[in-house]
Write a structure and sequence with these properties.
By secondary structure, the protein is mainly α. It has two domains: 1-49, no CATH class; 88-163, no CATH class. Helix content is 48%, strand content 4%. Helix 3 runs antiparallel to helix 4. The radius of gyration is 35 Å and the shape is elongated.
């Protein structure tokens, strides 16, 4: 069986060999895979070319990766905190690219109905923490009108088509 390139091969000869004196001196002088080399199937001990400790490069790399990930996570948390609005509910939908809907298509009718349903839920959440008063109903109506206008502008349809979209989506 042929050895894989870079694999240690057994030497032919006597089974018992003395340990080379340079390996008995100190534990730091034990060759590591990056110090030892394989030349034509025989293991030869190379010289230590630097003062690095085995595995130190890996620790530095992992430290850099960990520090970078920690900084990115911290930046993400700060941005989430800034964008939260400090507890004030917003009457706004998420961004949607403007696209003219053709209400003759079933898919576009369903899309408009889904947008209308989302607008109703957003408006109800917008005033959910307020007591049921006339002012709350007025804020609910104003928010709903704002969201309907936004949907109509985004999709190039009329306000009435948006308001009645749940009726003709089936």
């Amino acid at each position: 069986m042929m050895p894989m390139p870079g694999q240690w091969e057994r030497r032919s000869g006597s089974k018992s060999r003395k340990t080379p004196p340079e390996l008995n001196d100190r534990a730091e002088r034990i060759p590591t895979p990056d110090v030892a080399s394989v030349v034509q199937g025989e293991a030869t001990i190379g010289r230590v070319t630097g003062s690095t400790v085995r595995g130190s490069r890996d620790r530095v790399t992992w430290f850099k990766v960990s520090a970078g990930a920690s900084v990115l996570l911290g930046a993400t948390l700060v941005m989430m905190w800034v964008q939260q609005g400090h507890g004030t509910p917003l009457c706004a939908t998420s961004f949607e690219a403007p696209r003219r809907l053709q209400l003759s298509r079933t898919g576009d009718r369903e899309h408009l109905a889904a947008d209308r349903g989302a607008a109703l839920r957003i408006a109800q959440r917008y005033v959910a923490s307020e007591p049921d008063t006339a002012a709350r109903q007025q804020r609910l109506s104003a928010c709903d009108a704002q969201l309907v206008q936004s949907i109509a502008t985004t999709h190039g349809v009329t306000l009435d088509q948006v308001r009645t979209s749940a009726d003709f989506s089936q």
